[in-house]
Amino acid sequence: MICHIVLIKFNPNTPDEEKEAIFSLLKNLKREIPEIREWSAGKQLRKTDNNYDLAEVGSFENLESLETFRQHPAHQKIRNMIRAVGSWTVIDYEY
């Protein structure tokens, strides 16, 4: 199994509407991409300058299913939206 964790930080001037649109799409990715085994997305509860704003955690059967997820149009759409208003950090590990 592969665990995929992404931490997202929005630029300071990102409109709340854009943040909410990205979060809504993230929450629903499992419905669109069958390679996702488990999925969760959540907002940061404690706001500080150093904290990230959103997190997503997913599990995948293997690296091939993770790569299929990464190339899926629904994932690409969200990635492009985030790229326009923020940045992210990713870790993928086997367990």
From TrEMBL:
Residues 2-93 form the Stress-response A/B barrel domain. Coiled coil: none annotated. It comes from the Bacteria. InterPro entries: Dabb, Dimeric_a/b-barrel. This is Stress-response A/B barrel domain-containing protein. It comes from Candidatus Ryanbacteria bacterium RIFCSPLOWO2_12_FULL_47_9c.
